[in-house]
Write a structure and sequence with these properties.
The complex is a heterodimer. By secondary structure, chain A is mainly alpha-helical. Chain A is built from 23 helices and 2 strands. Chain B is mainly alpha-helical. In chain B, about 75% of the residues lie in helices and about 5% in strands. Chain B is built from 27 helices and 4 strands. In chain B, a hairpin with a 2-residue loop joins strand 1 and strand 2. In chain B, helix 1 packs antiparallel against helix 4. Chain B is globular and about 120 Å long. Classes of the chains: A mainly alpha, B mainly alpha. At the A-B interface, helix 13, helix 15, helix 18, helix 19 and helix 20 of A face strand 1, helix 5, helix 6 and helix 26 of B.
């Protein structure tokens, strides 16, 4: 069996094993020599995790919608549960993205985290493996296990390394997401029985279902995924979680964790429940547009930088769900592109705020002003990401929003009209914050004492900047990977699977 | 084939050369130093200009090009490409952009000599040149939008160049957001184009346009609108933002917070004319909707006249020129509405030269005045700044439309074209552009007389500045890097109209690049018929109303500011209300700040406090937590730990069960 460990298994288990190793070297604080070793080991694990994920991209066959890199083994034969892994053009980019972000997160926590270093690094590595598991699972139970297990590291990250109100935030985060996914478990058990005893997600795609059942299942899945995305009105855990989380936690939360919810819509809701998805699309569209407009306005008045970016995340994720329920390739591919792009941009913005927070220990916009005078290199990179967040063309932030708006206008002019308001709101809240923090005369002595970013911070931000720019100037390769899988999905969703 | 390949590399070279300059100056500014930064960027723009000249000649020889460089994105069965369309409209714009940009680059060496952000500035203006060239050379809507937003970004960066000034960073945010309002419409227009034409490629869209001319769209139940009208108006909203048309004009005067070279390049000669260029490029669409054309014409007319009024009361030398720019952009827009696209582009070109000249001359005055911009504190400068004085005079004469000067040909053509238009609103537009001539002449020469003639009022003004340095307070002519561009711009301001009027307006120089439905909109035909050579037109112009209105404007300015300089103060006091309205700029800034900025902040904070914090979190989330807590607390009472409580409960339970068994 071990002669051929699949690539997907490696992307899942290598970070987890590395995390456990780091944990084993940890133990008591104080051994300062050991801390460097732990960091290096963690970086090594993360880098290896990223390297083993690369063949997924390079070896991917973008001409087929079939699952690739498939692995299949018995797990719990009694209930017909399998260790089934595989990726298509929809899930593959996220495995690579997640493995990539993990490297940056380890680097970002390098000098900043000083207590329980081994545990911190281990939590991120283990979480990285678990999230890869979510995207790669083809078995419902396996998916559910990964889906729930990934909550634990993040819960600990917020609860241990978080801010003053971390316990409230961690519990709120945990309960919100747990309550959501419990309904999903019920839905999965129902599908197990109607499919004649299978937990295979691809089998579920083909199971005919009556409208009533579809509607109920839709609601069950909806809660699980909507909380994760998060969609209005189940979004209020996110700003709290972000504010309390350490920088690395915010980056993973924004860049990856939110994507799991959106991914669920594409892997479960749309293909398993096509009729209910069409029937209830008005609901998702309405909530998505509320996210864009309402949350855009709420973001405008935030006084805490992290909260502002958290609300901005919700608004940007509104584009993802809006795009998915347009049922055309512009919308769905645009939503996927937006997911990847948002991973880079929001991750970068949280890192930027982390850079400031590490120096000033404040997230309050009013404590800043004139940062450009003392941190010019940082100001330039921050400007770039702010513009990307505002959807400037030639950054990845533009591509997804543009595609979703083009997809929406084909369905209904007013969807596009409301969604396009983000052009104004997004620019307003991002650039207004930027103006107050970075521009202007030096606001106080603490700003005057700031030092510009060092080589490590520059490396992290510049890497993300290159990603954002590359995807904005030449998004073709990214959409090419998704193209066939998305077409196949749309074809599938267009057909009713009501019982005859 | 070889020759064709060469031309394609040349097309690519035009935008890429300034981009390379921008990258070198921006990322390696410290390493290459100030001299290095201005050398690479000036070289980059020079290469772009020379390549544009070669391409211009190639296009004149009858070659055009429409092809893609790479596929940006594919979705569904649509491919979005990055590519170039090289025709006569494009090359004209390329020449104007690269030439003015080159002049501004050279001028900047002098103007920004003492600024610590020297390299950054050169990097920005080269990046701007790249973006603007990508915009005009595009062969599709997508790349147009790319360039469109990129020039907006650079404009934002440059208005806020001196980022420690509160006014500058207020102005750049305002400029970006107001432009975004325009882009909002523009993007929806592009979306409708893709949805209904199935392509974003100009050639494909323009080919299909006539078939869709009578299509209607119902975006509000029960109301059907012409698809073409909706698309054109949405696209034009984009132009209103970029080209600062009423009511999205509010950002342009504030943009004067940026350094003067970019006011010349971006906020006068090139970027703000992107909207004009765009509508001319879209002529095959706009020609299909009379409603949209009327809308364009009326908006332009309002801008042309009412922004001119505001120029009269400004005392900041740059703001006078800025309002003049607004007004002239209005003229171009009116020409578009009258289907005289080539006239609009003609005025765009002459305006680029004389307005860049006026701005750079204003900058020269500002240097000489040690960065004092108040024209009330100048006067008599012609003795000290002879080159600046002569070139400013040429620029002003061109602006007010003096016969034989370049501005005369373009402005008179606009007035004639509007006269020939029969669309709704053309009467008002004709009145606006004619009355505008008087206004233009008056504010231009008010400024000219206050700056260069009359009493020297700057001796006192200097006391606040430069006191410590103990400098010689006599202004003196600026260095050659500043005056050379003035002279090089003065030449086309004087001559270019005379030589290009014939082909551009009366002839069919643009060919297929611009489409006009001549039967429905015959303005161009009438212009061509009335044209009997540039000299004859200028001589005839001497007998026409606009010329005498201009003379009247100059004479009024002369009387008020040189003969009776006490009068303006009296008039100002007598006309309290009108003065207040003008001083408040018709109240737009105040209204926008209160209604849009304040309103969205108010709604945002209400949604946050009441929606998120009170309703969702307070009532639902924490509320359900409290309910759980309350229920748990109640239930906990039952677990008292006393044995007799449990025994009692057991007995009651057994009794109830027994009763149930017996009865049922």
């Amino acid at each position: 069996m071990f002669e051929s460990i699949g690539i997907l298994s490696l992307t899942i288990w290598l970070p987890i094993v590395a995390g456990l190793l780091v944990l084993a070297t940890g133990g008591k604080d104080g051994a300062s020599g050991g801390v460097d070793g732990q960091r290096t080991l963690a970086l090594l694990g993360a880098a290896l995790g990223f390297i083993v994920s690369l063949p997924l991209w390079t070896g991917f066959d973008s001409t087929t919608a079939a699952m690739q890199f498939v692995e299949y083994a018995d797990w719990i034969p009694l209930f017909n549960v399998h260790y089934a892994l595989g990726v298509d053009g929809i899930s593959m980019p996220f495995v690579v993205l997640n493995s990539f972000i993990t490297v940056l997160v380890v680097l970002a926590g390098w000098a900043v985290i000083k207590t329980k270093v081994a545990q911190y690094m281990a939590a991120f590595l283990i979480q990285s493996g678990l999230i890869n598991g979510v995207f790669a699972s083809l078995d419902g139970v396996l998916f559910y296990v990964f889906f729930e297990a990934m909550l634990i590291p993040l819960y600990l990250i917020i609860g241990i390394w978080g801010g003053p109100n971390r316990v409230y935030a961690a519990i709120k985060f945990f309960l919100y997401t747990l309550l959501g996914s419990l309904l999903m478990l019920v839905a999965m058990l129902y599908l197990f029985f109607v499919s004649g005893g299978s937990f295979d997600i691809l089998v579920w795609h083909k199971v005919p279902l009556a409208m009533g059942a579809q509607m109920l299942l839709f609601v069950a899945f909806f809660f699980a995924f909507a909380v994760k995305v998060p969609m209005w009105p189940v979004h209020t855990w996110l700003p709290d979680a972000h504010v309390e989380a350490p920088t690395g936690g915010s980056v993973v939360l924004a860049a990856i964790t939110l994507k799991v919810g959106a991914y669920g819509f594409l892997r479960f809701t749309l293909p398993i429940l096509p009729d209910a998805s069409h029937e209830l699309s008005w609901l998702i569209i309405t909530l998505s547009l509320i996210a864009v407009v309402y949350i855009g306005l709420v973001a405008l008045v935030q006084t805490d930088m992290k909260k502002l970016i958290a609300y901005s995340s919700i608004a940007h994720m509104g584009f993802v769900t809006l795009g998915f329920f347009m049922f055309n390739s512009w919308g769905v591919e645009g939503g996927l592109v937006q997911m990847i792009s948002h991973g880079f941009i929001s991750g970068a913005l949280f890192l930027c705020i982390g850079v400031l927070y590490d120096r000033m220990h404040s997230r309050n916009i009013a404590d800043y002003g004139g940062v450009a005078n003392t941190m010019p290199r940082f100001a330039a990179l921050f400007m770039f990401f702010a513009m990307a967040n505002a959807g400037l063309p030639a950054t990845s932030g533009f591509v997804g929003e543009f595609m979703v708006i083009l997809g929406a206008i084909q369905v209904n002019f007013w969807y596009a009209f409301l969604a396009a308001l983000t052009l104004i709101f997004g620019a307003a809240y991002t650039l207004w914050m930027y103006k107050r923090v970075v521009f202007g005369p030096v606001a106080n002595d603490r700003v005057a004492a700031l030092t510009d970013i060092d080589a490590r911070e520059f490396l992290i931000l510049a890497t993300l900047a290159v990603c954002v720019l590359a995807m904005g100037v030449y998004p073709f390769p990214v959409t090419e990977v998704m193209h066939v899988s998305v077409s196949n999905l749309l074809e599938h969703v267009a057909h009713s699977k009501l019982l005859p | 084939m070889d020759l064709l390949m060469d031309m394609q590399s040349l097309y690519l070279l035009v935008p890429m050369a300034p981009l390379v300059g921008a990258i070198l100056a921006g990322f390696f500014g410290k390493a290459i130093g100030r001299r290095g930064a201005h050398t690479v960027t000036i070289l980059g723009v020079l290469v772009a200009f020379l390549a544009s000249v070669v391409i211009f000649q190639d296009v004149l020889a009858g070659n055009t090009y429409n092809g893609s460089v790479y596929t940006w994105l594919a979705a569904g069965d649509v491919r979005l490409e990055i590519g170039f369309l090289i025709d006569r409209l494009t090359v004209l714009m390329m020449l104007v952009v690269t030439f003015v940009s080159l002049m501004v680059h050279i001028y900047t060496v002098g103007y920004m000599a003492e600024d610590p952000g020297y390299q950054r500035f050169f990097s920005y203006i080269s990046l701007f040149t790249f973006s603007m060239l990508m915009l005009v050379m595009s062969n599709n809507f997508l790349q147009l939008f790319f360039g469109w937003e990129a020039v907006g970004l650079v404009s934002y960066l440059l208005i806020g160049f001196w980022f420690t000034r509160e006014t500058a960073i207020y102005a750049n945010l305002k400029a970006f957001l107001v432009n975004r309002v325009g882009d909002f419409g523009f993007l929806l227009g592009i979306g409708l184009v893709l949805a209904h034409f199935g392509s974003l490629d100009y050639a494909t869209v323009f080919d299909r346009a006539p078939d869709l001319a009578n299509n209607t769209i119902s975006i509000i139940d029960g109301q059907t609108w012409s698809l073409m009208t909706l698309i054109c108006i949405l696209l034009f909203i984009g132009a209103m933002g970029k080209s600062a048309q009423f009511p999205l004009h509010v950002w342009l005067p504030d943009s004067m917070e940026g350094p003067t070279p970019i006011s010349a390049l971006i906020h006068a000669a090139t970027m703000v004319t992107a909207g004009i260029f765009m509508v001319a490029r879209m002529s095959p669409l706009f020609e299909l909707s009379d409603t949209a054309l009327s809308f364009v014409m009326v908006i332009g007319a309002i801008t042309a006249l009412f922004m001119g009024f505001l120029g009269i009361i400004q005392n900041d030398i740059k703001r006078v020129v800025a309002y003049s720019t607004l007004s002239q952009l209005g003229y171009m827009t009116v020409a578009l509405g009258a289907s005289a696209y080539s006239v609009a582009i003609f005025h765009l070109m002459t305006h680029a030269f004389f307005k860049a000249l006026l701005f750079l001359a204003a900058g020269s005055v500002i240097i000489a005045m040690h960065h004092n911009q108040d024209i009330r504190k100048m006067g008599g400068l012609r003795k000290y700044l002879p080159i600046t004085w002569i070139t400013s005079l040429i620029g002003s004469l061109a602006l007010i439309g003096t016969p034989f000067f370049s501005g005369f040909y373009s402005k008179d053509s606009i007035i004639e074209a509007v006269h020939a238009s029969h669309l709704a609103g053309s009467g008002f537009a004709y009145f606006a552009v004619t009355a505008g001539v008087f206004v233009t002449a008056f504010y231009s020469f008010r400024m000219y007389f206050l700056v260069f003639h009359g009493k020297e009022r700057f001796h006192n003004a200097h006391h606040d500045h430069d006191h410590a340095q103990g400098q010689d307070h006599t202004p003196h002519e600026t260095p050659w890097v500043v005056t050379l561009p003035l002279v090089l711009l003065a030449i086309p301001s004087l001559l270019i109209g005379y030589f290009t009027m014939g082909p551009l307006v009366a002839g069919d120089w643009f060919g297929h690049a611009i489409y006009v439905n001549l039967t429905a909109h015959p303005a161009m035909v009438e212009l061509a018929q009335g044209f009997h050579g540039a000299t004859a037109m200028a001589l005839h112009g001497l007998t026409l109303l606009p010329f005498w209105l201009a003379v009247g404007g100059v004479a009024t300015a002369y009387y008020l500011y040189l003969v009776r300089p006490d009068l303006p103060q009296v008039i100002r006091q007598r006309s309290g209300l009108i003065y207040t309205i003008l001083d408040e700029k018709y109240g737009f800034d105040r209204f926008n700040d209160w209604f849009f900025a304040g309103g969205s902040r108010l709604i945002g904070s209400r949604l946050w406090r009441w929606g998120d914090a009170a309703l969702i979190d307070g009532l639902v989330v924490n509320g359900s937590a409290r309910v759980v807590g309350w229920v748990a607390a109640q239930v906990r009472q039952l677990q008292s730990g006393y044995l007799y409580h449990y025994a009692f409960a057991m007995i009651v339970g057994v009794a109830l069960l027994a009763t149930a068994f017996v009865h049922f």
